[in-house]
Design goal:
The protein has a single domain, classed as MFS general substrate transporter like domains (Growth Hormone, Chain: A, Up-down Bundle). By secondary structure, it is mainly α. Helix 12 packs antiparallel against helix 13 and helix 12 packs antiparallel against helix 16. It has 19 helices and no strands. It starts with 8 loop residues before the first helix and ends with a helix. Helices cover 77% and strands 0% of the residues.
Length: 425
């Protein structure tokens, strides 16, 4: 009896996670709040000005993501991913030369969003979804858990680098790590699909899989068909409104705690705890959605964030603030993990990347608007309490939206694909 081979898909999930953990989408929220004090000291920029860099990156991400999805569906993911990480490394290193004109500071974030869009979840989710079906939830959970590890690493590494080398040189170290370690790893290890390694999806026997009338990646809807459905717009709204408060907390947590008298290093530890909790949220939600109805899981996992924001609004001390940050991290981990899973379950893999990229734009828009708008509310209200109440309301609306989701459809070939199959028959 032939011994079953170790399924290479798990290596794909782990290495994809390494990439996602060093994506600019993690780098920005994990470092922007920490850099705020240094940037304010040198250039006099305020918190709202600095956090607006996240909004700049988000706006360009929203614009670019649909084009990225279509490009990945057309030419594949691996080449785009590797090139994007090389460009990201060079752009991060270029922050060493930032001057007092804040326009050039924003320009770098815009370029990160445009030229490094391939470092985001969009192409990685395509690769993982082609390797996994029955265990897609936990595979995505493993990969996306590294966003928490990456965020925690940035949160602890950046203060160390700033203290020992200065904030400018810290960018050189960060860019060098991505260029020398991450990009070559992705180039050597990533594979577009299981067939390239002699596997079928989920590690099943390749011979049996070839007998299927229509491959899994050919079933589902096109983007044009998807946008005509109620589910498409429900997913888009839910995953716009929920990231708004969660991302806000991720970016403003350190400045908020420092304002409340917490030492900067201690505040950075609280932020790191949020990212560590994301690891648990990713893995736990991935395990749950493989067993239970994912929209209900997502709605239930909004509750930890709601409790965490409520604790912060009540003026939590440092110990309670760390617990609150971890609760928000659990929710952030689960929601970011469930979106690519729902995309495959409701719309299939026919044009998975194009459809997911549309949702990713909504997710990115909510994430990017959160921090600067919250900072403006803080300025307007003269404190953090009332803005935190607004963020709690957004979480409640998002959870209620998720509760309206219907059962997964039985996916078939899209109209175009059925026409091709009929012609061949």
């Amino acid at each position: 009896m032939q011994q079953k081979r170790f399924f290479y898909g798990w290596i794909i999930a782990i290495v994809s996670g390494v990439g996602l953990g060093t994506s600019f989408m993690i780098f920005i929220p994990a470092t922007l709040g920490i850099l705020a004090a240094s940037l304010h000291k040198e250039f006099g920029w305020g918190l709202a000005q600095i956090t607006s860099a996240n909004l700049v990156a988000t706006c360009f991400t929203v614009i670019v993501a649909p084009f990225l999805g279509a490009l990945v569906d057309r030419v594949g993911a691996k080449r785009i991913i590797v090139c994007a990480f090389i460009i990201e490394a060079l752009l991060i290193a270029s922050f060493y030369f930032v001057g007092s004109n804040i326009v050039w500071f924003y320009a770098r974030y815009a370029l990160l969003a445009v030229l490094s869009a391939g470092t985001t979840t969009v192409p990685f989710a395509r690769i993982i979804s082609r390797w996994f079906d029955r265990r897609r939830g936990i595979a995505l959970g493993i990969a996306l858990a590294f966003t928490g590890i990456g965020g925690a690493t940035w949160s602890k590494a950046v203060p160390y680098l700033i203290e020992h080398f200065g904030w400018r040189s810290s960018f050189l170290w960060e860019g060098c790590f991505i260029l020398v370690i991450v990009a070559p790893l992705l180039l050597l290890v990533l594979r577009e699909n299981p067939e390239s390694m002699g596997f079928a999806i989920d590690g099943d026997a390749l011979a049996a899989a070839k007998k299927a009338a229509l491959p899994v990646e050919k079933t589902g809807l096109t983007l044009r068909e998807a946008i005509r459905t109620r589910t498409f717009w429900a997913v888009a709204f839910a995953f716009f409104i929920i990231p708004f408060p969660i991302q806000s907390i991720m970016v403003i947590l350190v400045p908020m705690l420092i304002t409340n008298g917490v030492a900067p290093k201690t505040a950075a530890t609280a932020q790191a705890s949020l990212w560590i909790a994301m690891v648990f949220g990713r893995l736990f939600s991935g395990w749950l959605v493989d067993r239970f109805f994912a929209p209900r899981v997502a709605a239930g996992l909004v509750l930890p964030a709601l409790i965490g924001v409520a604790m912060l609004s009540a003026g939590a001390g440092i110990s309670a603030a760390i617990v609150a940050a971890m609760l928000v991290g659990i929710a952030n981990g689960s929601e970011g993990n469930i979106l690519p899973y729902l995309t495959g379950k409701y719309f299939g893999l026919k044009q998975y990347t194009s459809i997911y990229a549309s949702f990713f734009s909504c997710y990115a828009l909510g994430s990017g608007l959160g921090a600067p708008l919250t900072a403006l509310m803080v300025t307007h209200f003269g404190g953090y309490t009332k803005p935190l109440y607004v963020l709690m309301g957004c979480l409640v609306v998002g959870a209620c939206t998720l509760m309206t989701f219907r059962a997964y459809p039985v996916l078939k070939a899209s109209t175009d694909q059925r026409q091709v199959a009929t012609a061949k028959a």
